[in-house]
From TrEMBL:
GO biological process, one term: vacuolar acidification
InterPro entries per UniProt: V-ATPase_116kDa_su (IPR002490)
MF terms in GO: ATPase binding; proton-transporting ATPase activity, rotational mechanism
Organism: Natrialba taiwanensis DSM 12281
Lineage of source species: Archaea, Methanobacteriati, Methanobacteriota, Stenosarchaea group, Halobacteria
Protein name: A-type ATP synthase subunit I
């Protein structure tokens, strides 16, 4: 990236803005108003009018749901009468929208009335019979008839009552006792505040009261009239929606094209807000790709000639902390380093003089030009197409700085592998690929399509590990067919360790997870070492190198023979010749160096421990505070055991689902088998008393159990599929963000957003 400055008289500013906008190349820097004699510029005349029209257009697009409509992308140019057409569309759409709002409100009121009168229609009692009595109380509502009658029987204030029930609706007529009537007669305020004896009686149970509608019609007639009104309103709504759809078809492209044009106009008109301006001159700065500086210069010279100064201020590299680590010297005041550039104009000189007044605000690097607006260059993430979807996961943390390594490629290489390792099933993997393909192809949102790409890669690695484990939807049929019957391979498939006879695999996967963590963290510290090389070899060795020494020193010691008796056996048995992964590794030797007397005992200092201590001392000298976290080299690696835990958890869930449906038995050798192709009786007939049926399975328990079992089988595997995202996906992301990124990555970069607008012009008119 190159920092460029454009200085000229205010009179040519609109032309300069239009030229830069058409190039769609310069990431403009924001002037903060700190230079003496310079203020932020004012919007170009017409900005307010364009902004107001743009708001109108976007409001119309929202009303017409253009964002969800299948309207072709805007093309062409606007006709001369576009303002008149916009006003006509605005007037008509607003009228229809107002009508629609009024009708929807009336429809809501009608539906509310229907809901209130429907219970009375169920009873079949005229509404005028449910009110107006002085000697009895009447209440209509919904509740349990048995509970209601029990409460009415127990009520001391009720002399007699009658109930009328239809469906869930009940009408109650109750006569209060003489004492209650006498109290009402003596009250001065009338009956409104004296309550209803039925209400008082039912206060302790669940009862929904319905107010009697105010109408002279019968309930059924009133409901019929309301239903007719509802149908009429719905018909009018449909007509309005059809009319709006017609406007969307006829004027949708016009509105989208107008939005594009007005957006461009507003961008141009408000650009001076980012410039530094005085009474007669302006200064604009921004970032361009270094190889595009010549094109920028040529375009501006063709537009305004020699009446402005175009200067490449710097081509700088930044270290990870945002400091300039290198700046190429660019001769001040000469575009593209051209010593024969035209002399400055009076306006240029004025701008330079006025800019000099604020020189105390500038920064100078390596003897190069002044960097007047101290912003860092924006970031362009340039990754291979296969890794592009993973940029969304990096940006979820923070966009990389211009000075940093973009970790996307490392995320692409490790995240799908972690996910596939934890799920490892061909069936689930195929579903993940299908879901990812749907997300990537059926949505317009860049975020969703990127997540679809991530899902595809995660699914592919799930399929890969599924072949290694020989599993498809938790069944080992794939391993038997592929590895044993076809390829005659004895080592594969690998067992996940759920069966009692394969328990060593369960612990073995924890060891594998630890080794994956050691490798992953080594990559992180090596990347940190590389980035710290910008400060010098000493800084890289003392800081990043210390962590590398501690990490590898302590873990080589943990896998070494020293103090083996106090370490778990599975550390040394996992890769032994008779272990679950038989590669012949039983631990590192002691590599003893010197015996140190410690009172009555002795301590053997081994090479791995010495490496760890050297790294710790280096870190202590470099950063005493950070040395307190030295044990992170152990704790962070242990975090990766969550991969082995998720692997066993997800496999266990699939195992239970299959066990419930198929059933299972254990043969005389202790091997576990699902009853996929045999009835439970097969076990006794084939093995005798040496085998044991663990569960018959719903599949073999009758028709009803078979149907229920199929539901459990499908729903169960769908649950495992969903939890694979929320557990394996989130755990893999956590390991990347918390354990890996923290070793070398800070983020906080700005996105490269060039001032301009992509457009497709044709001869069409709208």
């Amino acid at each position: 990236m190159s920092k460029v400055s454009v200085t000229g008289a205010k009179g040519i500013m609109p032309t300069v803005i239009e030229t830069i906008h058409e190039l769609n190349l310069v990431h403009l820097s924001d002037y903060d108003g700190s230079w003496e004699g310079f203020d932020n510029g004012n919007p170009i005349e017409g900005a307010d009018d364009a902004s107001e029209k743009l708001v109108t257009v976007r409001a119309l697009e929202s009303t017409l749901d253009l964002a969800d409509a299948e309207t072709p992308a805007p093309r062409g140019t606007l006709a001369d009468n576009w303002e008149q057409r916009l006003e006509e569309v605005r007037t008509r759409v607003n009228e229809l929208d107002d009508q629609r709002t009024e009708i929807r409100e009336e429809l809501r009121q009608v539906e509310d009335r229907i809901d209130r009168v429907s219970p009375f229609a169920e009873l079949g009692i005229d509404l005028d019979l449910l009110s107006g009595y002085e000697t009895v109380d009447i209440l209509v509502g919904e509740g349990s008839p048995g509970e209601i009658e029990a409460e009415l029987d127990a009520a001391e204030d009720i002399r007699a009552y009658e109930t009328f029930t239809s469906g869930d609706v009940i009408a109650i007529v109750a006569a209060p006792t003489d004492a209650v009537e006498a109290a009402v007669d003596e009250s001065e305020s009338g009956s409104e505040d004296d309550g209803n004896v039925i209400d008082d009686a039912l206060v302790g149970i669940e009862f929904t009261r319905y107010d009697v509608p105010d109408t002279d019609q019968s309930p059924s007639g009133y409901v019929a009239e309301l239903e007719e009104r509802k149908t009429d309103l719905e018909s009018r709504l449909t007509e309005i929606d059809d009319e709006l759809e017609r406007i969307e078809r006829e004027d949708g492209q016009f509105l989208l094209q107008l939005e594009e044009e007005l957006t461009i106009e507003v961008q141009r008109a408000e650009a001076p807000l980012q410039f530094a301006t005085s009474n007669r001159a302006f200064i604009a700065e921004g970032w361009v790709p270094s190889d595009e500086f010549g094109r920028l210069t040529t375009a501006l010279r063709n537009a305004v000639g020699d009446s402005l100064e175009i200067e490449e201020l710097e081509r700088a590299s930044y270290d990870r902390h945002g400091a300039h680590s290198h700046t190429e010297e660019i001769q001040k005041g000469t575009p593209e380093g051209d010593a024969d550039a035209p002399a400055q104009t009076d306006a240029d000189a004025t701008a330079d003089d006025e800019a000099a007044d604020g020189e105390k605000q500038t920064a100078v690097t390596d003897g190069g030009s002044a960097v007047t607006m101290g912003d860092e260059p924006p970031t362009i993430q340039d990754n291979p197409s296969a890794a592009k979807p993973f940029e969304v996961l990096v940006q979820a943390v923070n966009r990389p700085k211009y000075s940093e390594l973009d970790p996307t490629i490392f995320l692409f290489l490790t995240f799908p592998a972690f996910f596939g390792f934890m799920i490892g099933d061909v069936g689930y993997g195929l579903l993940y690929v299908a879901i990812g393909a749907y997300m990537a192809t059926q949505f317009d949102s860049k975020g969703i399509t990127s997540l679809g790409g991530v899902a595809i890669w995660a699914g592919l690695f799930t399929i890969l590990f599924g072949f290694i484990y020989g599993e498809i939807f938790g069944l080992h049929v794939l391993g038997e067919v592929l590895w044993h019957d076809t390829l005659h391979v004895d080592l594969l498939p690998l067992n996940k360790g759920l069966e009692p006879a394969a328990a060593d695999f369960a612990l073995g996967w924890m060891v594998v997870s630890v080794i994956a963590g050691i490798v992953h963290l080594n990559i992180g510290y090596i990347l940190d070492f590389y980035e710290n090389m910008s400060h010098g070899v000493k800084d890289a060795v003392m800081h990043s190198g210390s962590w590398l020494l501690m990490l590898n020193g302590i873990w080589i010691w943990i896998f070494s023979a020293q103090a083996r008796g106090s370490k778990p056996d599975f550390l040394f048995n996992t890769f032994a010749s008779d272990g679950p992964f038989p590669i012949g590794f039983t631990g590192f030797p002691e590599w003893g160096l010197v015996t140190i007397p410690l009172g009555v005992t002795e301590f053997l200092l081994t090479a791995p421990l010495l490496v760890f201590l050297i790294g710790f001392v280096m870190l202590l000298v470099t950063d005493t505070v950070e040395a307190v976290e030295a044990l992170d080299v152990i704790v962070n690696v242990f975090s990766y055991t969550r991969m082995g835990a998720v692997l066993l958890a997800k496999a266990g869930m699939a195992f239970v689902v299959n066990l419930l449906f198929f059933g299972a038995y254990r043969d005389p050798d202790g091997a576990f088998h699902f009853l996929r192709t045999h009835e439970p009786s097969y076990v006794a007939e084939h093995y005798g008393d040496g085998a044991e049926v663990i569960f018959n399975g719903l599949m073999h328990s009758g028709t009803a159990a078979l149907v229920g079992g199929l539901v459990i089988l499908v729903v169960g595997h769908l649950v495992v599929l969903a939890l694979g995202v929320t557990s394996a996906g989130l755990q893999a992301v956590r390991l990347e963000y918390v354990e890996f990124f923290n070793k070398f990555y800070e983020g906080g970069g700005a996105n490269y957003e060039p001032f301009g607008h992509d457009r497709n012009d044709t001869e069409d008119h709208y």
